[in-house]
Amino acid sequence: MEDASPPKQGEGVGLENVRRRLDAVSAREARLDTSRENGVFRVTLTLPARMAPGPPTETCE
Question: Which of the residues 13, 19, 20, 30 has the least number of beta carbons within 10 Å of its own beta carbon?
Answer without folding.
Answer: 13
